[in-house]
Amino acid sequence: MPQDLLKSITGPHDLKKLSVDQLPQLADELRECICDQISRTGGHFASNLCVVELTIALHYIFDFASDRLLFDVGHQCYPHKLLTGRQSLFPDLKTKSGMAGFPEPRESDFDLFSVGHAGTAIPTAVGMAIGDQAIGEGHRRAVSIIGDASIINGVSMEGLNYAGTLNRQFLTILNDNGMAIGDPQGAIAQYFDRVRVSHAFDDIKKRGKEIIDRLPGGSFIEDLYQKSSEMFKAAVSTDHMFEHFGHVCIGPIDGHDIPTLLDILNDIKDVEKPILLHVKTVKGKGYHPAEGDPFRYHAPKPGVVNNSEEAKACEPAVPEGMEKSDCQVVKKTAGKSFTAAFSDAMIDIMNRDEKVYAITAAMPDGTGLDKVQPHFPDRTIDCGLAESLGMDMAAGMAKSGLKPFYAVYSTFSQRALDQTFQEVALQKLPVRICMDRAGYVGGDGAAMHGFMDIAMNAVFPDIVMLAPSDEQNFEAGLEFMRNYDANATFIRYPRDTVAEVELQEDAPPFELGKANLIVPATTDKPHAAILAYGSMVYTANESLQTLTDQGYDIALYDARFAKPIDIDLVKQLIEAGTPIITVEDHGIVGGFGTMVLEACNELGLPTHNIKRIAHPEKWMYQDSRAGQLKVAGLDATSIASTIRKFLDAQKSDAFGGTTVSAADEIDLPADASEHIAK
Question: pTM to 2 decimals?
Answer without folding.
Answer: 0.77
